Amino acid sequence: MLSRIQSVILAALAGTALALAGCSDSATSPAATATNVVAPIAGVAATTAPALPPSPVPAAPSVQAKGFFVMDFKTGQVIAELNADQRLEPASLTKLMAAYGVFHALKSGRIKIDDMVTISPHARDQNGSRMFVDVGTQVSVENLIQGMIVQSGNDATVALAEHVAGSEPVFVDQMNQYAQRLGMVSTHFENSPGMPGPQHYTTARDVALLATALIRDFPEYYKYYSQREFTWNKITQPNRNGLLDRDPTVDGLKTGHTESAGYCLVSSAKRDDMRVISVVMGSPSIRAREDASFALLNYGFRFYETRKLYAAKAPVLTVDVRKGQTQQVQLAPLNDIYATIPRGQENTLAVAADVPNPLFAPLARDKPLGKLHIKRGEQSIGTYDLYPLNDIAEAGFFSRLADDVKSWFD
To answer: Same structural domain for residues 263 and 329?
Structure first.
């Protein structure tokens, strides 16, 4: 004779089998109605009406430069490039990395913005563009930052390097470590201001990565890059970035010039919710680097747009759950998902999910359960982890047993 427990188990198994075979009169369970269709991309309407073919995207403008690189700040999407990975002299674009090192020291608390720095002979004796600090005087870190960024002062840069690291060579070693950490694989520095040297080089792509990191990691100090002028020692010098006056959407970043490097300019501009970064290196004149940067920024904004496709923690997919206290789970990305695409071509985007179905409890909100793939034609826009919006604990013994039976019919 069957025990009472065996009878209950067999009854549960039989009921589940009948339901799965379609022989039960009970209503369809929530798990049976689970959908694996990914939520549509925001702003992309499904339509069967004939549409005009998307407007073609012309080639980037031809400009006077040895190399350039144009990218969207938010997505990192490349918009245009020329000799982007060719090693070139950065000249005073080097001061972007010097600033990164100073800002990092400020943010970590190793130095303070109102620290007073004693100017050394080594700092005062720098050649090239200068802030005109005097040996033995004390200058605040904030004033030296303005001298480095606005006036492109080599003396201010070395004074900051010595204050942060004790000596310029140690600071330069830090600069190179930061470059590697940021993925600047074709960059090496010999000094902090950007004087020429056989092992002092970078690429347009690497400089764009650095500019992105500066804006992203240290927004509280970005204001200095749009400052129009700075006065020290009764000498007023204007910001050398002429695009600040030429284009009101430009708010940074840095110029550079030596005889061997030519004229360089890193520009950043924001229009509406889109920020574009342009790096121009090796132009023959100040006017040429400004014209090139202006044309490349306009090209980026005119022919491309950056759109939010999915919001952070907004469900994009519902998946069945087995052996859990609930029968379905919603999956979502942890962060907003953006894409930079040619204007008018949002309907060329396609999305697909790679998620096991069903999933098995327990499920935790901090563990990714699948991938969301976004493509434009054959080009991959990106792949993003999907997380459950809720923790799901394991169900009781009989519910798990019933799910085992369901799996026989999958």
So the answer is: no
pLDDT of residue 37: 72
What is the set of active-site residues? 92, 95, 152
Three-class SS of 61-113: CCCCCCEEEEEECCCCCEEEEECCCCCECCHHHHHHHHHHHHHHHHHHCCCCC
**CB under 8 Å to 298, separation ≥6 — which residues?**
none
CB 339 within 8 A of CB 374: yes
Query: Considering the chain, what is the average pLDDT of its residues?
Result: 88
Domain finish residue from 303, 325, 342: 303
CATH of the domain at 322: 2.60.410.10
Q: What is the pLDDT of residue 210?
A: 98
pLDDT in tens, 253-280: 999 999 999 999 999 999 999 999 999 9
Nearest in space to 276 (alpha carbons), one of 267, 264, 287 = 267
The whole-angstrom distance between residue 68's C-alpha and the CA centroid of its chain comes to 19
C-beta separation of 122 from 159 below 8 A: no
Report the C-alpha gap between 393 and 70 in whole angstroms: 48
Which ranges of the chain have pLDDT less than 70?
A: 1-36, 42-52, 396-410
**253 and 358 assigned to the same domain:** no
Residues 6+ apart with CB under 8 A from 73: 212, 215, 216, 268, 275, 276, 277
In a domain, residue 206? The reply is yes
Nearest 10 degrees: Cα torsion 139, 144, 146, 152: 130
Whether the CB-CB separation of 387 and 402 falls below 8 Å is answered with: no
Distance CA 1, CA 285 (A): 99
Beta-carbon neighbour count of residue 39 at 10 Å? 17
Q: Give the domain extent around 36.
A: 26-42+311-408
pLDDT on residue 52:
67
Q: Are residues 295 and 321 in the same domain?
A: no
**Which residues lie closer than 8 Å to 253 by C-beta, 6 or more apart?**
96, 211, 214, 225, 241, 266, 267, 268, 277
Q: Are residues 110 and 229 in the same domain?
A: yes
Residues 279 and 254 in one domain: yes
Are residues 216 and 132 part of one domain? Answer: yes
In angstroms, rounded to a whole number, what is the distance separating the alpha carbons of residues 381 and 304?
14
Q: Are residues 327 and 292 in the same domain?
A: no
